[in-house]
Structures are given as structure tokens and as C-alpha cells.
Write a structure and sequence with these properties.
Elements: H1 2-24, E1 34-38, E2 43-50, E3 53-61, E4 93-101, E5 106-114, E6 119-127, E7 133-138, E8 146-153
Antiparallel strand pairs: 1-2, 1-8, 2-3, 3-4, 4-5, 5-6, 6-7, 7-8
Length: 154
């Protein structure tokens, strides 16, 4: 009876460890998900998956340029759509429609929004071998775009 219990306990422990290991495995396309801080340390975005699209929302930015206007009160006043000019910047999607491409291990065909100018750009992203996120905003051609660097934060 004791031996049966010991074997059962051993199998239960092995199963538990295996399930934990499987839970920690992330699909290649989901490696982009999480919080990312810009290289300049002036903003943090939360990248998340919605169906097959990847999006990013603004969760923090440096508001020290005008202490009288805390980030929680700032709105999208440069948006070309007048109806959206009163929406808050915090929580706003700044990146949408990114699609994972397994052949290139990159995310393509996205739209990135620059609230400082009110403009939208095409976008693409990839992770470097050391886990750094590179996001490029461009108009028609990637090679003349601008690339931002982000580091994963907890």
C-alpha cells in the first residue's frame, strides 16, 4: 500500500512539473506580447494579441515636459478625426493589425499611430536574437522608415 502511494505521488509530481513546463512554453508568435519600454525610456507599451492580430496600447509615458498636464489627463488633440481628439492617450492603441509571419519570424502589415503628429504609418516588427524589439514605422518602403527599439519590462 505504501509502495502504491509512493508511485502515485511520484507520478503526480512528474505530471505537475511537466504541466508547468508546458504552461511556460510560448508560441513563437506570442513572444512579442508583454510590456516594452522604449530605448529613450520615455514610454511603455503593452503588446497583446487579439485573434491573429497583434496590437499595442500606451500604458505610460514621460510627462515631465509639462508638469501641469499629467499623463492621465492628456488627450489625442492632433488626431485628424475631430471625434477622437478628446480620447485619452493612456490606454489608446498605438499599433494595430500586426500579423505574424513564421517564414521571416517577424510581424508585418501593421499600422502605427504617432499621437505627436496625428499621423498613421505602415509598420513591421521583429525580435533580435537577444530579445530586443525593433518596430519600424514607414510610408511604403521599410528602408526609408524609422525604427524604434524597445526592451521588455516586467
Amino acid at each position: 500500500m505504501v509502495r502504491k502511494f509512493s508511485v502515485s505521488l511520484f507520478l503526480l509530481i512528474i505530471l505537475s512539473v511537466t504541466l508547468k513546463a508546458v504552461n511556460k512554453t510560448v508560441a513563437p508568435c506570442d513572444r512579442i506580447c508583454g510590456r516594452w519600454q522604449s530605448e529613450k525610456k520615455n514610454c511603455i507599451v503593452q503588446v497583446y494579441r487579439e485573434d491573429d492580430d497583434f496590437k499595442a496600447k500606451l500604458v505610460w509615458f514621460d510627462d515631465s515636459d509639462d508638469p501641469s498636464k499629467p499623463m492621465e489627463t492628456r488627450v489625442d488633440f492632433k488626431n485628424p478625426d475631430k471625434a477622437l481628439r478628446t480620447r485619452k492617450l493612456i490606454g489608446m492603441n498605438v499599433l494595430e493589425k500586426l500579423e505574424y509571419r513564421p517564414k521571416t519570424d517577424s510581424w508585418e502589415n501593421g499600422i502605427i499611430y504617432d499621437a505627436q503628429s496625428g499621423k498613421k504609418w505602415n509598420s513591421a516588427a521583429y525580435l533580435t536574437s537577444d530579445g530586443v524589439l525593433k518596430v519600424t514605422g514607414y510610408w511604403h518602403f521599410k528602408f526609408i522608415g524609422q525604427t524604434m527599439t524597445f526592451y521588455k519590462v516586467q
